[in-house]
Amino acid sequence: MLKLVLIFSALAVSLFSNNSVSALSPVISTAQLGGSGSGTSQQEVFQVFNNSDIGTDVTNWCLESGSSILACFVPPNSNTKLILESKQAILIGSSQLHAAYSSITLDYIYSASNIPGTNGSLRIIESSSTVIDQLGW
Fold first, then answer.
1. Among the four residues 63, 101, 127, 128, which has the most C-beta atoms within 10 Å?
2. pTM for the full predicted model
3. Exposure b/e, 5-24, CB count within 10 A at least 16 = b
4. What digits encode the pLDDT tens for the residues 42-72?
5. 97-119 pLDDT, tens per residue?
6. How far apart are CA 104 and CA 107, in angstroms?
């Protein structure tokens, strides 16, 4: 019995330590793959929400679709860290969405990739290539 408790305790520590990814990590909370009208397929927007109770260092994390990198959170210099505060979000959108809806404040703008409406995926990848969250359809 003691062995099981120790193994469970070790697993619990590794699952809930700040060095591991958990359900409380930043997640892809919103995904719009394109607009609703003709010629709007590249009006894409995504929201990444920090579901944890502490700020998360997202320095050099990237948002990928398939094998394409849409956006990376790159600081202006090596002494700067990018922190996504607790219960806050980053809004990432295509340049086509920004052109059509300039009143929407985007934190990051990328050139549209025309993400497929079927059999697609979206992933948040940290600098070591660990998948933080993914969404597939």
1. 63
2. 0.76
3. eeeeeeeeeeeeeeeeeeee
4. 899 999 999 999 999 999 999 999 888 889 9
5. 999 999 999 999 998 677 888 88
6. 10
